[in-house]
Every structure is written in structure tokens, then in C-alpha cells.
Amino acid sequence: MGLLAILGAILEHNLPEERIRQFKRWLLSRLERTGRCLAQRLPFLGEGGGLRLLLHLQALIAGLGGLTQPAPAVARVLALPGFEPFRIDFGTELRDMLAALLRGRAARGPGEPVLSTGPERTPGGNHDCGEPEG
Fold first, then answer.
1. pLDDT (tens digit, 9 = 90+) per residue, 29-43?
2. Span 66-72, mean pLDDT?
3. Burial 26-36 (b: 16+ CB within 10 A, else e)
4. Is 3.90.550.10 the CATH classification of the domain at 2-108?
């Protein structure tokens, strides 16, 4: 998880373009092959859906990595009473999030577009849930 979490944020920002191109080609070949295997076993993913699932999984891993492996000072704060909601387990959260992602994809069916969640979905782009900000 460690290198994957910093791949886009740090490593790829500090490499020469040619090295990035080589790495991305190598990665794409493996993602395509694994993605095809996933799509064969999970037909609701549709064509290209296995690769897309792997990219989503990469984003989940990178994001959860930062939340579940906080810096020492953050970990000390989170150990204090009242911060329990921030203490999350990587494996548990990843399984739950991946299961939710797969359930949502299976409910859509292959080829169906993803519904937009952008500002155009609500009048004026307001996403207020009625709770006062504080």
C-alpha cells in the first residue's frame, strides 16, 4: 500500500517524462490483462470495466492509506477521547468500499452511464443537507 499511496502524489511528479511513459505503458498492459480477467468473472463490469475497477481500487487504496496511517502527531491526537470516528481499519474499510462499489456497478449493468453527482443535479449547485455549518 505504501508506494501505491504516493504514486500519483509524489513519485510521478518527480520523474522524467520518458520514465513515466515507460511505467504507464507497463502498468497499462498489466491492468488490461487483469481487467479482462475481472470482466470475465464479473460480467456486469462490461467491456473495459475491469480496468476501470482496478483504477477505482487504486484510488481507494491511496486515499485510505493516508487515513489509516497518519503521521505520528496526528496519531497521538486521534488516540485522544472524542476522536474515535477517525480511527479506521484499512482492511475493513477497503472491503466495505469495494463491496459498495461492486454492488453499485452490478445494479447499473454493463454499459449504463454513471449518474452525475455534480452541481447540475441540484438547483443552483447547492448540496446543503439542511444542517447549519459550524
1. 999 999 999 999 999
2. 89
3. eeeeebeeebe
4. no
